[in-house]
């Protein structure tokens, strides 16, 4: 074996051009596969870093009749589920929040979660410093302790080892830091602000949370040892049915939905990652086919060498082993370079977070990725090398020795080369069609009218502390003052406040339309948005009927609301909804009059249809903590960034302790909504272009090899009177036949791929003729261009030199 390695090294060292082409071709395929495998390994394959993560499940509320799933649970229902859920060893409640941190430096808004005190025990996690929550610290009078993240400990407190036991000021209230959480610990898969939770507090129910219609709690459970997910689901169905009988007003049709925590994290990206992994696999396969073509062509020049070896007694296995050794060396070199490309790709993904993937901060090259790269390098060597080795190891001795003076590819079976080139074209077309469909889907999503005007709009999140603003009246007065100051800033045309900026979270509420009774538990659902006056002008949502809110809509005036066009269409088709009345589930004793109808806006996502929406005056809000977590929306005359400094200064003058967070333009929010789809289509398009380029190189190589093998034939044809245009046509027709066979196979393969991609498509048919026919014609045209170069060379053949050559 060592002798084979030394000979292979000497042989390859004298052919640097061949080695460079092969190594870089393999590096593209192996590098892309290693990078995407790193993502798949991190997101899909690696277990969550908790104790026995397979027993962790997320629990949601589900209403099949109203087609609602994965909904938050009311705190009252959580208490019953926990008390009666015999399938669970533990169950914990979680609610995401944000908090003002006021000590040791500038005011800062930090992300946090309120959790029941058993959360770390449930997850199997211990603080790296300090201690866990005590059970009694879940009581309101004792809930003045906090756990902080490793990142906050490092960033804000310089990893102060004496911080444990000291007080920090959050929301103007002192909390004792009792522990520091591990650096790797992020919040496990439930909706919290991006970046994880910096502060963990004991869960204390808000006023009104005993109301079962107020559902804003997320749950995590740990199954008992030996209990399956199906058994737990059956047990929870029994509990839900029991609660439905006890509380028909709020729990009719309400069921429990159990989902493995891992599935909750990756469910939305699983299909896209699998498609991408399949795409890079096809790129690697095309690279292997290309290299196999090069090796078959090179083997033609080695027929004499191999024939002499066989004539001197070498058996077939000895020849195959020698050639496979060369292939392994080439593949390992390609794997090493590919690993470097994969490392750069992983760094780019981790740095830009362009994928919007879960667990992306865990992405890195590890032992599993290195092993995968080594494995595919060896398998790649076998894949592209075995065919050429087997064919070259059975030379026809007499013919090979006679051809020793030519050293051409004439002895290579052209049918093998043609078959491999057709396969390359087919695989490339499959990827190109998939990329074309994804690109058209991306363009369709990008062209969706969001229902509002995003240009020149700035948003600022202003979570208010309960210490400085303890009630809704004080919170509303703050917004009045802030909006008055903002409207006076030069360059600002409109400023307004809203609970939930479009595309940044939802708050839904059930409601009843007067005169339209429904069975208990069947109340329709709408999005809930308290807004200030001028909000529709600031955001660019058109008023279709009636009036907008104004400064006279206060707590002392009549209860009013505005609905969007979709809600009006569903409840009163063909009628004027102005003057109709609605009752919200949060307000069992109040009826609100509809005073206006506005256009539909995409509030939950660009790909989702227009959902029913209800807008309330900010002063009349009844959703707990809505005003404390609202945002300001500012429309400007020019670039919003030009007024950002002035707006921050106004807020600092109004309240110097107030941290301003999430300062983003509405265009940036729209761009973030497109980020996951952009990531998929960009990578898929890149892989498809690489595959297409490799296929064209393969076609060029096969036709060039064919022309070289037919040099004598072409010279004879020209000697007998064939014109250059006849030779040109002969070679181009051969290339066209090769391309056509590959295109036909590719169209069939693309039809199968699109069935797998239906979940990623939007606004385009999976069998879109424009994509299929257009890309087939484009690939055919470029393949013919690749054929023209060797065809022109053949047409310029000198018949005398060609016949002398033979």
Describe it:
The protein has 806 residues and is of the alpha+beta class. Strands 1, 2, 3, 4, 5, 6, 7, 8, 9, 10, 11 and 12 form a twelve-stranded mixed sheet that branches. A six-stranded mixed beta barrel has the order 15-16-21-18-20-19. Helix 14 runs antiparallel to helix 22 (769-795). The radius of gyration is 34 Å and the shape is elongated. The model is unreliable at 191-195, 397-401 and 403-412 (pLDDT under 50).
Helix content: 40-55%
What's the tally of helices? 23
Shape: elongated
Secondary-structure content class:
alpha+beta
Bin the strand percentage: 15-25%
Can you give keywords for this protein?
806 residues, alpha+beta, twelve-stranded mixed sheet, elongated
Précis, in short:
With 806 residues, the chain is α+β, with helices and mostly antiparallel strands.
Write the layout of secondary structure elements.
Blueprint: H1 2-13, H2 16-45, E1 56-63, E2 68-71, E3 73-74, H3 75-84, E4 88-101, E5 108-115, H4 119-123, E6 129-130, E7 145-148, H5 150-157, E8 167-170, E9 173-180, E10 199-202, E11 215-223, H6 229-246, H7 248-251, E12 254-260, H8 261-266, H9 270-301, H10 303-311, H11 316-352, H12 367-392, H13 397-402, H14 414-446, E13 457-461, H15 472-487, E14 492-498, E15 508-513, E16 525-531, H16 535-539, E17 543-546, E18 560-564, H17 565-571, E19 581-584, E20 592-598, E21 613-617, E22 631-636, H18 641-654, E23 661-665, H19 666-709, H20 711-719, H21 724-756, H22 769-795, H23 799-805
Parallel strand pairs: 5-10, 7-9, 16-21, 18-20
Antiparallel strand pairs: 1-2, 1-11, 1-12, 3-11, 4-5, 4-11, 6-9, 7-10, 8-9, 13-22, 13-23, 14-22, 15-16, 15-19, 17-20, 18-21, 19-20
Helix pairs in contact: 1-11, 2-9, 2-11, 2-12, 3-6, 9-12, 9-14, 9-19, 11-12, 14-19, 14-21, 14-22, 15-18, 19-22, 20-23, 21-22
